[in-house]
Structure formats: structure tokens, C-alpha cells
Amino acid sequence: MVHFWVHGGIGANTIKPGRPLVMGHEASGTIHSIGSAVTILTPGDRVALEPGFPCRRCVRCKEGRYNLCKDMKFAASPPDTDGTLCKYFKLPEDYCYKLPATVSLEEGVLVEPASVAVHMAKLVNVKQGHNVVVFGAGTVGLLCASVAKAFGADKVVLVDILERKLEFAKSFVTGCGTFIPDSSAEPQDNATRLIREHALGVGADVVMEASGAEASVQTGVHVLRVGGAYVQGGLGKPNISFPIVTLSEKELSMKGCFRYSSGDFQLALSLIAQGKLNVKQLITKIVAFEEATMAWETTRRGEGIKTLIRGVGDQRGSML
């Protein structure tokens, strides 16, 4: 959201002059009305919204990777797919997830970023006993660390340059380690110190990169053991210097992450409902719809974690 607020978009995904766009893609709400063919929802149901739907017919959709559908209609995507920051938003019924009675509408908003973390963890097959290093202690990074724990990871270490973020991480992810890299040191040296200080032996099994910072990407490659797995979720500069020889010599498995796909939303909601992801702790404050720009500015300044925006004209829906 902040990329659009400050820069008008991300890369080629940019708002065009004269073609305004409604923002918002992390959302929950209450069903207002349904079509004649809908069978699993009724007006009044509280739901988390998966804010994009694919064509369902292309090769990528049929192989279960619908997030890569070239005809995906994703909320707040230029040039003409408006977002969820509005009173009414229309979606297919299977992209609306009923919230259990124990999950609030506010928590329902956080199902979307939690789904990104679930998708990242699944891409690198985080499992019981793994040592995982997460770069970036923002919303997605915190959720990556928490999901890794829920998936059975043994050690989870969060890396960030801001001590206040890491202090929050310690309360959010029980038993996690933290690490502040030396900005004047080489990435390989930071990786060596991280491995030593957190007793990672021959290196981490998995790296989940959620910052997009060039130095973090480089350090992540060096901190992995041979045969380790790396997933890139953070968005930074479009081109960076990359330790490709190390990648090859270690025979690392590297994957990109684009949003989420089959089963990720449902699993994220399930983890929240079970209390394994305490997303409520991420909510810094909630503002009225009329104060939406205040919420974006708060996020841009790096204040708090998540500022939610109330729905239009009532208290039944929350969205960022």
C-alpha cells in the first residue's frame, strides 16, 4: 500500500495518470447480499476476503498455481481493478472465508498477510526440526517467523537493523532469536557471526527473506547450509548484486514468492483460529474510513505494525 501511496505503484504495476484506483487488498467484512447460485454464504456472515480471483481455465490455474494466472483480477491492481477500501466489494463465494466465532473482523484482515507467510513457508518446505532465519521484522517477516514455529521449526532467528522491531519480535514469536547485522561489515561476515551467535552449526536450513534489502539477500545466501532452501518475499531494488557462485557451490534451492495460492488462505485462517498466529498483537490502532491517509502515513513513517481502517459508514468491516 505504501508503495502506491508514495510512488504510485511497484515497477510496471503503476497507476496511470488520469486513471485513479481504489486502494486496499487486506480486508474483512460482512456479507451484504449474494447471487442466486451461491450456496455456502448467507447475508450477515463475517468473512476474510482473498482479494483476487483468477480465470480458472489457464494452465497455471489448472495446475493449482492460480496466483500466477495472467488474467488474475487482484484488488488495487492497475489499471482498472479497484481495491477493497470501499463500502461494497464483489467476490466469488469461494474467495470469501467464513470467520469462526473466535476470530474478530480485525483479525480477519490479517489473514491476507498471514497467507503470504504460509505460502513462503510451503515453498521452502519448512518442517519439524528446521533452523530458520527470517530477514525483515515487518508484518510479513514477523508472520513468517511465527508460521515457521507453527510448522515445527526448532530455531527461528529474526534479522533487522532496527532494535525496536526485534524487541517486539521477541514478544510476538515465543523463543525466537534476534540479530542486528553490522552495516559496515561484508554480508559473508555478518552471516558467519549470525551462525556463531545462534549456534546454527553448518548454517540455516531455510532462509525466508522479507525485507527486500540487497545486503539481506546476500547475507541470506551465505547463512544457509549446503543444500539449504531460500525464498524471496521482500520487494526492494529491481536489480541487485548477487552471490551466484555461492548459490551454485552450495547447490541451494531458491524460489520467489508471489502472493499466495491453493490452500494458503484457509491454512492461515486455521492457524489464527487455533491461536498459533496471534495476529491481534500486530494491530497498532484502528482509524475511521475518513482517516485512511493518516493510516498510510503512519505506516510510511514506520510507526507501529498494522494500522487498520474501518469500513465506510459503519463498524462491521475493517480493512487496510
Structural write-up:
By secondary structure, the chain is of the alpha/beta class. The protein has 11 helices and 16 strands. The strands form 5 sheets. A 6-stranded parallel β-sheet has the order 10-9-8-11-12-13, sandwiched between helices. Strands 3-4-7 form a 3-stranded antiparallel β-sheet. A 3-stranded mixed β-sheet has the order 14-15-16. Helix 5 links the parallel strand 8 and strand 9 (155-159). Helix 4 packs across helix 5. The chain is globular.
Keywords:
320 residues; alpha/beta; six-stranded parallel beta sheet; three-stranded antiparallel beta sheet; 11 helices
Stretches where pLDDT is under 50 for at least 5 consecutive residues are none
Q: From N to C, what is the helix and strand string?
A: HEEEEEHEEHHEHEHEHEHEHEHEHEE
Strand tally, please? 16
Strand arrangement across the biggest beta sheet: 10-9-8-11-12-13
Structural class: alpha/beta
Question: How large, in whole angstroms, is the Cα Rg?
Answer: 20 Å
Distance between the termini: 8 Å
Portion in beta strands: 15-25%
Q: Estimate the mean pLDDT confidence.
A: 93
**Overall 3D shape:** globular
The largest sheet is: 6 strands, parallel
Q: Which bin fits the share of residues in helices? A: 25-40%
Number of helices: 11
